[in-house]
Every structure is written in C-alpha cells, then in structure tokens.
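Hey, quick one: can you model this chain's 3D structure?
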Amino acid sequence: MAALLGGCATYRPAPVDPAATRAQWQASRLDDPALAARLRPWLPPRDHGQWPPGDYGRVELVLAALALNPDVAEARAHLAEASAAVRTAKARANPTLGLALERYTRAQADGAPWLWGLSTDFLLDGGLRRRLRVQLADQGVRGARLDYAGRLWDVRSAVRDALEQLLIARRQQNLAARTAAAATALEQAARQRVALGEDAPQVVLQAVQTLARARSDQAAAGQRATSAQAQLARAIGVSVAALQGLALRWDDFDRPAAPPSARLDTLADHALLARSDLERALVDYARRETELHQQVHAQYPQLSLGPGYTYDHGIRKLTFNASLSLPLFDQNQGPIAEARARREAAAAHVRAVQADIASAIDAARARLAAALPALDAARAGEQAAVRARDQTDHAFALGGTDRGTLLESRLAALAAGQATLAALDAAWQAEAALEDALRTPLDPAEATLRLADGGRP
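Sure thing. Here's the predicted structure for all 457 residues.
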C-alpha cells in the first residue's frame, strides 16, 4: 500500500496572475527572437527562412497569429484536455477493500474474543462497456481537433479581414485628406467670388457643406484605420504598439479576381463533404450513436465479485461474494429513448449543416461574381473623372475656366476614387465570404499553410 501511494501524483498550485499576463501581452513583439525560432521552419520561400521579414504579408501575419493568439492557445489547451479524457476512459475500476471488527467480552463468551474480516469488491467492468467508453473519449478528441482547426480558421480570417480593412482605411484616409484640402480651397475661392459680386451667397453655403462632408469623411477614415489596426493587433495576439512602424504587404491588392470555375467546383465539392463544421457534426452524430449503444448495453446486469477472509472467533473462513443488478422494474428504457432521440437530432443537424454550406457557397460565388464587375464599373467612372479633371486643369492653365470649376473637377475625381475604394473593399469582402464558405484560402501562398492540429508553429 505504501508503494502504491508513493506513485500517486502530487498537487502543485498554479495561480494565474493578471498583472503578469498583462505584462506578457504588452511585451509581445513580432521581432522577438524566441518567436523567430518558432516560426523559422514554417516561413514561405520568399522570406528565405529569415524572421522578421522586411514586410509582412498575409502568410507572415497568419503564422505570427498561430503562435501568439491567445484564442489558439485556449483551443490547444482544450485539445489537451480531451486527450487526457482518453486515459480516464481506459482506466479500469479499482477494487474496494472492507474491514469488519467484532469483539466479545468474557461475560458473553469463553472463546476467542475477536472476529475480524477482510472483504473485497471487484466490479467486472470490461469488454464492451470499457470499449464504448474509450470510443466516446476518442470521438471527443476528434471533435476537439476539429474545434481547434475551426479556431485556427477563425483567427486566420480575422487577420485577413483586419489587414484588408486597414489597407483600405489608409487609402481612404489619404483621399479624404486630399478631399478636405480641395474643399477648403473651394470654400476660399467661393468666398472671394461672392465678395467680388461674381456669385450668389448660396455658393458659399454649398462650399461650406462640401467642406463639412470632407472633414467628416476624413475623421471617419481615421477612426476606421485606428479600429482596423486594433483588430489586427488582437487577431495576431500583440498590443497595438507592437504594430507601429510595420511595413504591411498585400500582393495584387488592386487586382482581385475570381478563381477558375473548375477549381471552385472542386473546392465546393470538398467543402460539402469534409468542411470542418460538417465533420464536427458527423463526430457529434457518432458520439450520439455510441451513447445509444451504451444505454442499450446498460440494461443488462452488471456483475461484481468479492472474495474475502474472515477470522471468526478462532475459526478461519474464506468467503466469496457475488452481486448482480436485476432489471426487474426498469430496463433502462427512458435513457435509451433519450439517447435515440439525441441521435435523430444529431442526424438532422448534419443535414442542416450541409444545407447551410451549400447555400453559403452559392451566395458567396454570386456575391463575388457581382462585386468584380461593380469594381470595373467604379474604375471606369474614376478614369472618366480623372480625364475630366485633367482637361479642366489644361483649360485653367490656358485661362479657359475659373478656379472654382477646377476645384470642383478635382473633388469629383477624388469622390470617384473613394467610390473605387468602396468597390474594391466590397470585392475583397466578397472573396472573404467565399473563402469562409469553402474554408479554404484562395491565395496560393496561404493555401500551403497547414492549419491543422499537427501543423502549427
């Protein structure tokens, strides 16, 4: 018994210190040498195995997020928790040991005064019961792996969306600043023309309204850029200060395009059969199936054996006890009915998830197909506005038009540029929706990353 107790685990407290975790969060940086050592085997060829890179694209930011994001660490801990449950399921039930003591006084008997005995109880918990428990635990591990893969995809999508929003917001901020400068000049020119009696006072009011809208758009663009930077920092797992001064890159940002139809059909077929949430629903159904098997098997009697030894007032006895549960009043029909109903609900959930996937893919493909022509139309409108601005600039240089007309043409060109940015944002958002529906990155460089439980920085 002493030897067995010596092999027991010991408890060591591990309190969580919010001050320490806060300091660790604030100290996290993308140029940390420890992070470089973790990410070096996963770097794409364009980085030549060097970290930190000269500029950060989607692949580099996603890799950093997989290593630093606290949500990924939490999902990894839940996966370890599910794996530990397999060991619990495989454990055999320990026997129990009982001690009985009895003493006669001399006034009651002249024989040996003591009766003592040792009794044991061995639950015969093996065979199918134990195999079903292990099977349930294994299914729990598989479900945790799929949850982990889903969390990795969520983090990847958050990084991608935040980076896209930040790049769009910075361009909007630049155009808004130029628009505000042109609107300020237009207001000044309008006031001068009104002061000289060349225009009515309403012209100044219109110019003031144009300037107010420009300044409001400039403030909104600044807020959007700040919010997008905070979202990107959270998605990566660092503070906002850690992103200051980083050079960000998005290859072909101005040229979103739909993948070939044949490739989309292949990816759609794969998603309809093996997307992670569909696999999760199938795992849940398998668990319900195993639980039903357990409840059906639980209606049969369970046997316990109890060999023992008794010293009965000088007489030594060997005892052997056996106990068997008798299903006389209840054959576990209630739990069996509940388990069967849960299995049917899980099967219905599988069909619902598959229908959702098909609907999301169709909607995302249609959205992207509509967003790309809208972007082309917005660019055509911007090009026309730029040509009109250039013609007005030439006419102004020759004295053929006034300064107010010149500024209005410049404002029109800047407004067309903002419309193009909005269409570009819509196109990338449509592609993001298609990626989420397929659960597959459409960028070839990102597609090489293995976002799975075994492939992580």
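One thing worth noting: Residues 37-99+136-303+332-447 form a domain with the Outer membrane efflux proteins (OEP) fold (CATH 1.20.1600.10).
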